[in-house]
Design brief:
The protein has 160 residues and is an alpha+beta fold. It has five helices and six strands, in the order E-E-E-E-E-H-H-E-H-H-H.
Amino acid sequence: MRCPFCSNTDSKVIDSRLSRDDNVIRRRRECESCERRFTTYERIEEILPLVVKKDGRREPFDRMKILAGMQTACEKRPVSVETIEGLVGRIEKGIQESGDKEIPSSRIGEAIMSELHDLDQVAYVRFASVYRSFKDLNEFMTELKELLNEEKKKSGAGKS
């Protein structure tokens, strides 16, 4: 593993731990040359499907794109990075388990929206406004009204 500080390739592992979901190994390392410590993450490389974009292009699945989109939607919201990474992991696992060789980008977008809807409504609306690319204010307001109606049903259903 190359040291991020001095670029030396010799390092020793000081500590290894499994992540909460047992899919990633976190390793603390120490560089043999500069003796600085750094963290690496090891995950199994799994074959993921190609993502079919709206225009028909195909590109490899990239979990970092999902992570970046969700982080942007959750910016300045009370949502931890660990929570976001857990949601991304759940979406990625669902895609892997589908066994599909190709997956439409719309399916990924809908999965992200579903996760954000349950997590944080502001983040959900932020993501939806970009993902669904509302053509005008009326479309945006329709989405907000649906969200508000769902909230009213939830809060009304809990009262007896």
